[in-house]
Amino acid sequence: MPAKYWLIMLLLVSACFSKAEADPQLTLPDKGGLTNQAQTKTTSLDQPMFSLAGFGSLGVLHSNQNAGDYVLESYLPSGAGRSNEWDTSNYSKIAAQLNATFSPKISAQLQVISAFESDGTYQPEIEWLNIKYSFSRDAYVRVGRVGWPTFFDSGNHDVGYSYPWAHPPSELYYLLPIQSGNGIDFLYRYGIGDARNTIKAIAGENTINGQTVTLTSKNMLGIFDTVEYGYTTFHAGYQIRNTSTQNNTTGNIDPVIEHNNLSLGIIYDPGNWFLMSEWIQSRASYKANAMYLSVGYRVKKFTPYINHSQNTPGSFASGFSPSDFQLRSANRSQRSESIGMRWDFKKNFDLKLQFDQVTLSDHSNGFLENVPSNQNLYGSTFYLFSSVVDFLF
Amino acid sequence: MRTIFINRNIFKLALVLFFAAGSLVARGEVVVIVSAKSTITSLTEEQTARIFLGKNDKFPNGQSAIPIDQPEGESVRDEFYSKVTHKNASQLASYWSKLIFTGEGRLSKIAEDDKEVVKEIANNPNAIGYIDKSALKKNVRVVLTP
């Protein structure tokens, strides 16, 4: 990453840090706090230096469109439909996380996950590995591999237990599959009246090894803001990056393209029901949008929900003559209507059932993979069925 | 023989009713407490919810706030969270799983029971906890009865 980006990050961090020092509320020492007391007076509430936790999912995905594979992540090599009528690979994953707390200010996180990857294996990978320095409990900086919070569930995308659906709305995540970066992130939270504002600034780089192409993103910079007020949460983010695409078979590397993304989201969750909606605009060689709207209702251990999710075909700037690959990528567009239910049947376990009706745009096979080149599924509609168990341990 | 059998059933029924009524009373009221040494006198549900959901680590007056939780499965815990945060046990577990596995949050310290909560809070003007009203002592102050 060029020095100038590190400099910008440093300036951001120091600016907010100096503000934190100027604010007497933030520098209140923890004297007499439980952290000290617990160590001297009682040992029962001491938190261990190391803690281990994990999560996982087991599930099946069925598609009645057997001319192509429906994949839950755009970089997966196969899914439900053509390769397997009932696919277990896309949902199945298991992960373990080690948290180390060296002092109230310094901690570290290591998360290793075994999930279906672009190379068709379940080879364990490091999802997160970072060291965190907390200036106060409202400001921290992390260095290492950290989550890229484009969407509400970007960082916990693999933690099925953390969201109500069988899987997050595909159309949104297809548009921006980058969920982490190697770099540095900085967070600062503060209150404005009854509202709470959280700003996060990130810099880093990322590589996605797809089945046919490798996407290398450098100079990734992002700024994300979250406002929580009552039952409402707003989220907005803006990010830029330079991405190059390498063809895995020919080795050819396309010229670097500058991407920028604007994302917005809202959650209203008073407890017994929720509404969630997110939107993203992606600008690179072409401009495209995606959005979803989800409404759910909670009745005891059951959470029925309905979703609408869609992405638009990309539009090129006038005068730009796209390559075949760019044109095919830009044309990929589809929409989904979903109905499902989460059942919290046991402590730390849930079972989800979901039906999706997916309609491909008139000029593409959507995000289906492995469609034979002589097949044209343009404008077709097909159905998915998901059954997943998520768990924490 | 037959009379005794029926009587036994009536006895059992009475016993069940007695305990059912007893448990209704014992469910009692959850109260949110701070140390008697604290300057905090009252809190709203929302202010309390934010402290226990890791969204705020300060009292409204700017003083640092340290939440003391109770073990999962305790009825006082479920009652506190459903009244104050409008989240049931699985919603809460789901909420924390997002924070823990993105490295954004850490669980609060957990005391064994009401008695230990009172003990920890009495000595610490920054601590805040919740207990059943029946476990109240003079060295702690109720700041919210949700």
The structural domain count of chain B equals 1
Largest protein interface? A-B, 56 and 43 residues
Architecture (CATH level 2) name of chain A: Beta Barrel
CATH homologous superfamily of chain B, by name? Periplasmic binding protein-like II
Mean pLDDT of chain A: 88
CATH topology tier name of chain B: D-Maltodextrin-Binding Protein, domain 2
**What characteristic shape of chain A results from the CA principal axes?**
globular
The Cα radius of gyration of chain A reads 22 Å
Strand order of the largest sheet of chain B: 3-2-4-1-5
Shape of chain B: globular
What is the topology, as strand order, of the major beta sheet of chain A?
1-5-6-7-8-9-10-11-12-13-14-15-16-18-19-20
Oligomer: heterodimer
Strand content of chain A: over 45%
Count of strand segments of chain A: 20
- Share of helical residues of chain A: 10-25%
Instruction: Give the tally of structural domains of chain A.
Output: 1
Q: Number of helical runs of chain B?
A: 5
Number of strands of chain B: 5
The residue ranges of chain A in which pLDDT falls below 50 over 5 or more consecutive positions are 7-44
SSE succession of chain B: HEHEHHEHEE
List the helices and strands and how they pair.
The complex is a heterodimer of chains A (393) and B (146).
Chain A: H1 3-22, H2 34-40, E1 50-63, E2 69-70, E3 80-81, E4 86-87, E5 93-101, E6 106-115, E7 125-136, E8 139-147, H3 170-175, E9 180-192, E10 195-209, E11 213-229, E12 232-247, E13 257-268, E14 273-283, E15 286-297, E16 302-311, E17 315-316, H4 324-331, E18 334-346, E19 349-360, E20 381-392
Antiparallel strand pairs in A: 1-4, 1-5, 1-20, 2-3, 5-6, 6-7, 7-8, 8-9, 9-10, 10-11, 11-12, 12-13, 13-14, 14-15, 15-16, 15-17, 16-18, 18-19, 19-20
Chain B: H1 2-27, E1 30-35, H2 45-52, E2 66-69, H3 75-84, H4 89-101, E3 109-110, H5 114-122, E4 127-132, E5 140-144
Parallel strand pairs in B: 2-3, 2-4
Antiparallel strand pairs in B: 1-4, 1-5
